[in-house]
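**Protein fold record**
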Amino acid sequence: MLLEPLKTISWAYQLHYYLCFRTRRAAAVFNTPEHVEAIDVALREICEQHDYHPLQSKVYPDHLRCLLSLRPAQTISKVIQTIKANSARLFNAQFGLAPPLWGRGFLARSVGRVRLSVVKQYINGQAEHHGYEKRVRPPVSRYSSEEAVTLSAAHASFDLNHHLVFATRYRRGVFDSALGASLIQYWQRVASARGFAIDRVTCVPDHTHLLVRTAPKLSIEECALALLNNGQYFVGKHGPEAMIQAKIEQLWQASAYAGTTGKVTTALVKAFLSERE
């Protein structure tokens, strides 16, 4: 089957990231109220100019911590590079300092409305949620990684977890347990080739839930398009009869849900950054 790949996706999303980076050599640069206010104002200005949404931030003498809401096409590495470069320029110009202001590296963690453990439980329970477990041969495929794939980036500590949901065209039932399992195996090869990791999947006839970890240089939109288009290619080649029976000319809806999750919630991080010392 000749299938047209998706180039764009309509998104429903909630993507929250906790970021931290230090001054060069951990120097106590922000040691006056004026310095703290200057870097805080610079952060807000940069976020407004580049379409980042700051949820909370806190300036320490030798580092900055912030909680940002981002869009699916934005990458953590680019966001941090933009904040570092522009805040250094604004701060150094105001106080007559010479660059560089920031040290190399950063910390990045995904957080969300619910914890990672809850999302894992939800993905595992899709068969029961939709009533498929009562069937003699449930049309459900599951995958859970026994050992997490290691992702790395130079001078960075990160843990970026995303819950993705894809629906078939018109929510038609396409996947049985065999085709779903084959698709999941193929997706693992795609993730390995593209530099991200799939930790958990449940595939039911008309939609799939995935738990995906990304590296800072990849946006979740890039990962989603890689999964959608390669998945469509795979099914068109190895299971075209399923699409013909479902009377669809494309496998997926041109839309997706993406939500970040982590070991702690967005609310907890906001409260932590709001505390006064």
The mean pLDDT is 96. DSSP finds eight helices and nine strands in the chain.
